[in-house]
Design brief:
505 residues, globular
């Protein structure tokens, strides 16, 4: 298949607002792809590169690499091979070699193809949020049931793999199961208006967990092999030997556990989220460094000793945790009265945590999606938004990047939609960090503002929202302040413009 056909479909999908039409466009392209091209095209149109990091940065693509070709000639397999060469380049002379590969590839690309390649290589293709639409397209192109495709994606965590399975047929698609050691997209929670609303929605057969201010982890153990994954399915096993040691001591042979980890102070209260995330990125602790040890708390179990539990109710999954690690269960109260639930919520806040999670004991694990059976309750409205730009400060903040431009995710296109600005909640430490970090994500700047690629997620607390003609989404944040940055989240996990608009009700 020609690259230009992929580029044209990408442009059509980006322009079209209809989910049905997007699905049809993608399905038509996928149906026409050869077997070896299919996973590549699915990866590209999901904003991914199969080879991973290629050693190509934004700066090397900020200026034209080569003059565009007059007519399209590039094939999908040809470009994929070039990406493979980029990924393989290493050692002395690798920078020059990468430049030569890029120059040759871009010289054969037309102007639209060059724009597509730049977007793909810099992570700005704007189609990473189309996972749901892509799953629909895979099902339509392969003429397979959508439920089977979604389940395979849930269990493999990979749209390209799912596409290949769907084309192989129903037996291949239906044969996918949990695999210990292969990360599963984590189930997400839906924000509740308040505790009473969550209790009323789920009824009496529920459990109320603490919502910890930590980092999401998914732990896999198969005999002596142990792996720890983050929310974004990044393998951090080498960085967390303290967690590995704890899991190795559990009385089981194989297990998949879902939970949170955080660092605790001497009094048992959580240390800051930044401390926990810094510990994740800094590698193993020094021997005897008890202050930097991570403590795991688990709230779900997807597999135990050969038994897949993902399709079992939460009550069964919790019983599995209790059978091997009751001391590692997240603080919870089962089938509480409304008064008991309120006391548990107040206790969570008093203990330094974010709030609570209200969960149906009959609910199943819905990987990679916001399940109605999980409701998160916090004392104030908080949203994970994307930083679009930052303005240079004035007065005491002169010389620092300060006032943030914030965007919520368009659920159809994945592009951020600006919903407000804020400079509140920024400590001197954060101001310095922003000033050092933001230029690494810069697209351009003017006299007052540095504009960024939409890569950084920040948690914002606000009192509410109001209608506004100033911003394109028709809504603006009220009294927004920075809570923390979320390096554990990607832009396609940011909250949507619909979630912000819901506050208007």
């Amino acid at each position: 298949m020609r690259l230009i056909d992929v580029v044209a479909t990408s442009a059509d999908v980006a322009r079209d607002r209809s989910r049905t039409r997007k699905t049809e466009l993608l399905a038509g392209l996928l149906a026409a792809a050869a077997d070896d091209e299919l996973p590549i095209i699915v990866a590209w149109l999901s904003g991914e590169i199969p080879q991973g990091r290629l050693g190509v940065g934004w700066r090397s693509l900020s200026k034209p690499v080569s003059q565009p070709a007059e007519a399209p000639s590039l094939e999908v397999a040809e470009v994929d091979a070039s990406f493979g060469e980029l990924a393989a380049a290493s050692g002395p002379g690798s920078t020059r070699r990468r430049a030569e590969i890029l120059a040759a590839t871009f010289a054969a690309a037309t102007e639209p193809e060059q724009r597509f390649l730049v977007g793909l290589l810099t992570g700005e293709l704007r189609q990473g949020a189309l996972a749901g639409v892509m799953a629909d397209a895979i099902a339509k192109a392969a003429r397979q049931p959508l439920t089977a495709v979604r389940r395979a994606h849930m269990l493999t965590g990979s749209l390209p793999v799912t596409a290949a399975l769907a084309r192989a047929g129903a037996d291949a698609l239906g044969g996918v199961g949990l695999e210990v050691g292969r990360a599963v997209e984590p189930m997400l929670a839906t924000p509740a208006d308040n505790l009473d609303a969550a209790l009323d929605l789920l009824g009496p057969d529920l459990i109320v967990d603490y919502k910890l201010d930590g980092a999401r982890i998914q732990v896999h153990r198969n005999g002596d092999d142990i792996a720890v994954f983050t929310r974004t399915l990044r393998d951090v096993t080498a960085n967390v030997p303290d967690l590995v040691e704890i899991v190795a001591g559990l009385p089981c042979d194989s297990v998949i556990l879902d939970g949170e980890t955080l660092m605790l102070a001497d009094d048992g209260r959580p240390r800051s989220f930044q401390d926990t995330m810094s510990r994740f990125g800094s590698g193993p602790t020094a021997a005897g460094d008890a202050e930097r040890l991570l403590k795991p708390f688990f709230f779900d179990c997807l597999h135990l000793d050969g038994d897949d539990l993902i399709d079992r109710p939460l009550s069964d999954r919790l019983a599995a945790i209790d059978s091997i690690a009751p001391h590692l269960r997240i603080p919870a109260i089962t089938r509480p009265t409304s008064e008991e639930a309120r006391r548990h919520f107040d206790a969570a806040l008093a203990d330094g945590h974010e709030g609570v999670m209200v969960k149906s004991l009959d609910g199943h694990y819905i990987a990679g999606r916001r399940g109605r059976a999980w409701q998160k309750v916090k004392p104030t409205h908080t949203f994970d938004l994307v930083v679009l730009a930052a303005e240079w400060g004035s007065g005491r903040r002169t010389g620092w990047l300060s006032n943030l431009h914030l965007g919520a995710r368009d659920p159809q296109t994945g592009a951020p939609i600006m919903v407000g600005k804020t400079f509140k909640g920024l400590t001197d430490e954060l101001l310095q960090w922003q000033t050092d970090e933001f230029p690494k994500h810069e697209t351009h700047r003017d006299r007052h503002t540095v504009y960024l690629r939409p890569e950084i997620v920040v948690e914002i607390e606000l009192d509410g929202a109001q209608r506004s003609s100033r911003y394109p989404g028709g809504v603006a944040l009220r009294f927004a302040r920075v809570v923390r940055y979320r390096p554990d989240k990607t832009p396609d996990q940011a909250d949507t413009i619909d979630a912000v608009r819901a506050l208007l009700k």
